[in-house]
Write the structure tokens for this entry.
Amino acid sequence: MKKSATTPSFRPLYEQIKILLTQSLVAGEWKPGEAIPSEMDLAERFRVSQGTVRKAIDELASEHILMRRQGKGTFVASHSEPSYQYRFLRVTPDSGEKLHPKNLFFGLERGKANADTARALGLKPGSPVMQFKRVMSFAGRPMILDDIVFAAGQFPGLTLAELEEFAGSVYSFYETVFGVRMIRAEERLRAVAADGFAAAHLKIAPGAPLLSVDRIAYTYGDKPVEWRRGLCLTDGFSYYNELS
Amino acid sequence: MKKSATTPSFRPLYEQIKILLTQSLVAGEWKPGEAIPSEMDLAERFRVSQGTVRKAIDELASEHILMRRQGKGTFVASHSEPSYQYRFLRVTPDSGEKLHPKNLFFGLERGKANADTARALGLKPGSPVMQFKRVMSFAGRPMILDDIVFAAGQFPGLTLAELEEFAGSVYSFYETVFGVRMIRAEERLRAVAADGFAAAHLKIAPGAPLLSVDRIAYTYGDKPVEWRRGLCLTDGFSYYNELS
DNA sequence: GAGTGGTCTAGACCACCCC
DNA sequence: GGGTGGTCTAGACCACTCT
């Protein structure tokens, strides 16, 4: 590949390499957890120098799409890896101890996208969707009630039994069973009063303050796939965030 | 500077350059908003190649400590620049419109650090601290009540009149008036019920759910400088966060 | 045109991992 | 020892900004 000096709007070579690598990832040429070819091999394949491939991989690694391991190779990041299991879960014990959550799934059903969900998922209002609920418990105490929605055709044949049986996060499940990898998410947090439904499942009094976490999760190409609302008890727990 | 191949634990050259650059920043050799020397000049000064300086600056830029502007130079980031004015404020209108907040400061007083504050700021419990409060309003509606604490000796002579008169964020004020630049922060969010004090200042009913945002803000060298708790109304507003 | 950051190359060598 | 990513260099050229 030659540097295209005459392109109307200049696009660096390494960005083009990024796009090519992403296309291979979308196409499934390399699967989550697997190694991609070495930098030298890729440089030869794309007819650029190692440094240019390196810069492309650097950026994909900083976006947590690839993972470098010195001496071993570059790997496709995966929600199934231990360190990435609950990568998007920011609600943790104040004490800092690592508690393993226990999931309870229920309420799988078909429905129609309301205005909010449709906008979030890029669907037409009224489009068919699937949804289910989940209670996440830490140390036997229910802490988070999630309501999870996605387009009806997104995860065909998904069952709660499978989810329940699957040891791991929901995103690890999507990835392993349906080959759909979530790469980033946007969240909006609010404080709300618990309604009767949430109160019952979290075993608290109605009206108690809850942290509401709305999330849109995206796969490759910034395609929104899943919308969820989590209602979180923040008693001994908090949502952690670093700003820089 | 030669590559130190015999150091017990290997430290790349560009990390050493990062440290040297940071030291110059701490020492005030280049002030917020000013340009630092060109990459070539720095390369000569540190006796390394331009590429090595470049990698060091790249990382400092990604940490928002420096700011690159192609064709112009590399600048020390500043909370006083328009795009950085409310860099750490994540609570924004759901609509996405940019509302300019209006600040009202009050309640400046001396006090003693309680256990939480002391731990956050790295002080001994009971150490002398200063604190003040602030109500932030958007479109004339009070939305956030902040309680802001720092070590008594940190900002000597700070007055509310100055703060009130100063057009800009609190961090811009610290930077401009005291030369203390905040470079990163950690936040912990919870949902709480409004107490009487908060209810009165936010003009809501006691017991209403509020988003509580605890923040520790750090300056160079990961030194904690300010602790604050914000109580936020999330009616038409939300705390936005991107996960990747 | 001069100066700045931004890209790209080619080659050398180092640190790390595994056989 | 051979392969991988990680660092460092020297030099060329491009894109952007200001004068």
About this structure: Residues 3, 5, 10, 38-40, 54, 57, 68-74 of chain A lie near DNA strand D (CB under 10 Å from a C1'). The first helix of chain A runs from residue 13 to 26. Chain A has seven helices and eleven strands.
